[in-house]
Amino acid sequence: MRILVVTPARAGARTGNRVTAQRWAGLLRGLGHRVTVATAYRGQRCDLLVALHARRSLASIVAFRRRHASGPLVVALTGTDLYADLRRSTATGRALDLATRLVVLQPTALRALPPGARAKARVIVQSAAGPWRRIRAGASTFDVCVLGHLRAVKDPFRAAAAARLLPRSSRIRVLHAGAALEPGTAARARAEQRRNPRYRWLGNRPHAEAMSLLARCRLLCLTSKLEGGANVVSEAAAAGVPVLSSRIDGSVGLLGARHPGYFAVGDTRALAGLLLRAERDPRFYARLGRSVRRLARLVRPERERGAWASLLRELVRRRSGTRSPRSPRTRSVRPAASRGALPSASLSK
Prior knowledge:
Elements: E1 2-6, H1 16-30, E2 34-38, E3 48-52, H2 58-67, E4 73-76, H3 79-88, H4 90-98, E5 101-104, H5 109-112, H6 115-118, E6 121-123, E7 142-147, H7 158-164, E8 172-177, H8 185-195, E9 199-203, H9 207-215, E10 219-222, H10 231-239, E11 243-246, H11 249-255, E12 262-263, H12 268-280, H13 282-296, H14 301-320, H15 328-338, H16 345-348
Helix pairs in contact: 2-4, 3-4, 7-12, 10-13, 12-13
């Protein structure tokens, strides 16, 4: 099958959408398909279009549907699509209507969809391959990493602000890798680094370096205001690194409602309290570790490959007029819920 993956992120960009598009392309090639990644659909020959980001890829979605009235079209929904644009953008709703299938990255995302769109949605949790071995952390510091570009939606300086509230005796150090993508953020990061001895901004780093940083830190801290299902959480689980996260649907859908490491979006004091507790309370740190180990079973690459293979078979059957006897969404969600990891989307939404 010839598959075109469309993402509005330009070639060479290290933003999440481009990284996801390139990773999916590799996965689909591994399933035996011919895959091209582009920023837009402009009439390229393809048997399937996978459009990443409903609103920003709408022009490509519309162009493909005009040329292929019944052709298979998969729209992958981002956090912005689900938790911002659906409420205020008619473009996002139109993209959902034109799609043959929708892909979401964790089951709580189904709650955000209009009821009429849920039947065409499939949950495909992003996978991650862990390091061969966890790098031993140093004893002199308790390193916490933030892996995310400097954008307002990521609330990128929240961990730094929380670190400033810690007592002098704390060994916590925040190591932040990510590009300054919005005006003024680089200057703010440098200023924060000058006045806050617990914070280091490492700038943009290749993925391999970012994963090496993650593997040698004691915690990952995710402070985002919204996420569709951050792949960095999957990467932390695969590496065995405990996670502290803002309580957002994108994280709750992956880590589960009972994960002990949540804080309210923007709550600096709550985050500071969790950081200090993780450093000083071995039982709490062990609970965080058990939580990500449960997720680790669900982010294995073979699970994601199987989910995509199932979706592609469904699209082929649909095109040939053969109905699937059982919904792939049900298959992908219920087994996880029965193990107590991912909550059941069909029940909770």
